[in-house]
Amino acid sequence: MPTTTAPADLYRHSLRLLLAKDIPGWVGLWADDGVMEFPFAPPGWPERLEGREAIAAYMRDYPDHIDLHDFPDVRILESTDPGTIAVEMRGVGRLVATDGPFDMRYIAVVTVQDGRFTSYRDYWNPLAAQTPATDFTGSSAQ
Question: Which of 15, 80, 102, 109 qualifies as a FRET site for 71, CA 20 to 30 Å off?
């Protein structure tokens, strides 16, 4: 993506990459020193990933666990900081291990600089991750 990419456009592009299961492409949208945080992470799950390599390791096997089909409810909110957006969204698909439904609501606060994600705070429901089929992090938190 060009360095002039607006945060909302970069975010929409990132969702298309996730739906295409293009994890290397998604990781490529990150700054080398980008930080991904999970403020509501359950015990044993990562709360903070520092750097593109850590984010890549975390996301590597995501499509083997969650088969995303759509993001039907995406709402991107601009902030007073032109590099920061807040996103309300819903991801739907299936859990690969059980073939059961996946339906998760998210709120994210995302900062972009020079066309790359530099900060991504992912507020998701940890109660929805209480089944082993959702544990794509390797934490086995139960």
Answer: 80
